[in-house]
Amino acid sequence: MKPNQELPSTLGELRSSAFSQTLSGARTVKDELRANLICKLKRGETLFPGIVGYQDTVVPQVVNALLSRHNFILLGLRGQAKTRLVRMLTTLLDPYVPYITGSEIHDNPYSPISAYARNLIAERGEATPISWLTPGERYVEKLATPDVTIADMIGDIDPIKAARRGQDISDELTVHYGLLPRANRGIFAINELPDLAGKIQVGLFNIMQEGDVQIKGYPVRLPLDILLVFTANPEDYTARGKIITPLKDRIGSEIRTHYPQELGQGLEITQQEAWTSRGADSKVPKYIAEVVEQLAFSAREDKRVDKRSGVSQRLPISVLENAVSNAERRALANHDDMAAPRILDIYSALPAMTGKLELEYEGELKGGDAIAREIIRVAVGKVFDRYFEGVNVNSIVQWFDLGGSLELGETVSAAEMVRQLNSIQGLMEKTRALGLTENESDALRASAGEFILEGLYAHRRIARSEQYQFGAEEKKAPARERREERDEKDRERERRRRQFN
C-alpha cells in the first residue's frame, strides 16, 4: 500500500487512480470484510491471533457470520474474550478507505448520504477534497448502560449550529450526529446490549432494517454502511428479557463463547496475558502456573460458586501476577538471588481471587475467604496427583506421624526454607518428579519442597495450621465424622430449599 502522502487528495484524482477499481459505491463494509476474509482463508492465515481455545468452536461461527454478511452477537459469561475478539475484526478491513473531507459520518465519495457531502460535491465537483481512514479509525465501541440516550446513539438537533449558519432548525445540516452515524463505513460494537433502553434498541433495528431514523421528530434518511456487532451475558439475554424481539430477530447470527475447555488452553491464555516477566531473577515453576490455572477450573465446578455469573479468565491472570509479586517482595526483603512463587504466595493472592467469585447462599454463609482457600486446596491436590501418581511418599508422612513438625512462613528466605525442608527424610529427593535437579537455585527447590507438603495436606495425609505449621494429620473420632457428615447434609438441604423458593 502506498504511503499516506501519495494517496489521492481530490475526487478527481481518486476517480483516475487505481483505487477506483475497488472503492466503488457498490462495495459495502460487509462486502469488504467478506472479501478480505476470503483472501486470508485462501492463504491459510491465522484469523484472530491471541484468541486461544476458539479455533474449532467460536471462530468458525464468526467466519460463517462474516461470509454471510450478518450482524451478529457474541453471548458469553464475563472474561471470555468477547470484546477482544470483536476488536480484532478491524484486521479484516482495508488499510485505507477514502471519505469526503469534513464529513462527520465519513461519506463515501462515490455515494454520499449526508446533505453536507452532497452539497460539497455539487459545489466543488472533481476538486472535492478527499481524506482517508485507517482500520482503527473505523471501529467504534460503546458500553451499553441504562443512561444512554437516543441522542448519544443516533443524534440530536443542534440549535447553536442552526443559529450560526442561519438555517432552519429542521434542516439536516443542523443535526449533531451520534455514535452510530459516526461509525458509518466501519464496525460499531455495543457491549452488554440488554442494558440499552427499549427505545434505543428500536432505533438500532430501524437502522439495521430501513436505514432511517427520526431526530426530534424530523425524519432523516441515513442508509448507513455499517457492521453491527453486539456482546451480552446469556443470563441477561434470555432470563431478564431485555432485548426486544424485533431487534433480536434482526441479528443474523447468535454465537456462544465459552471458557477454556482444557487446562493447557487456560495456561496459554494466562501466560499470554499475565505480567510475570519481572527480570532474569524471577521464574514461575510450571506446577505453580498449573495450580493457579486449576483454580479457575475448580471454581467453575464448585457448587458454592454461582454458575450464572461464571468465573472469569481474569482470575488466574490476576492471582498469578499477585503471587509473583509476593515472591518478588520476599526475595527483595531477604536479598535472595531469585524470586520463585510458592503455594503460600497463592494464598497471599486471595485479594485477587475473592472479588472475582460470586457465591451461592451456602458459599456466602461460609465466607469468600474460606471458599477461596478450599478451592486452592482442591487445585493443589489435583495438580499434585498429576506429578506424584504412583510415587511413594510414605516416608514423608511417617516423619510427621513420628512427631515431626515444621513452620514455614511466607517471609522465610529460600536458603533457610531449604535447610528446614532438608530435615524431612526423603522430601527433597521427591522434587525430581517436578523436574528439579540438585543444581537448581534455593528459590526453586524451596518452592518444590513446599508444594509437596501442600499436596499431602490437600489429600489430608498431613495437617497444616493457619500459621503454615505442618504436622501429623489429626485422626477424627467416628462420632465426629458422623456429626460433620450430618452437618454437611443439613447445609445441602437448606441450599436446595432456598433455590426452590
What does this structure look like?
- With 501 residues, the chain is of the alpha/beta class.
- The chain is built from 22 helices and 14 strands.
- The protein has two domains: 29-68 and 71-95 and 134-256, 3-Layer(aba) Sandwich (Rossmann fold), CATH 3.40.50; 263-472, no CATH class.
- A five-stranded parallel sheet has the order 4-7-10-1-11.
- The radius of gyration is 30 Å and the shape is elongated.
- It starts with 10 loop residues before the first helix and ends with a helix.
- Residues 1-5 have low confidence and may be disordered.
What attributes characterize this protein structure?
5-stranded parallel sheet, Rossmann fold, 501 residues, 14 strands, 45% helix, 3-stranded antiparallel sheet, disordered N terminus, 2 domains, alpha/beta, 22 helices
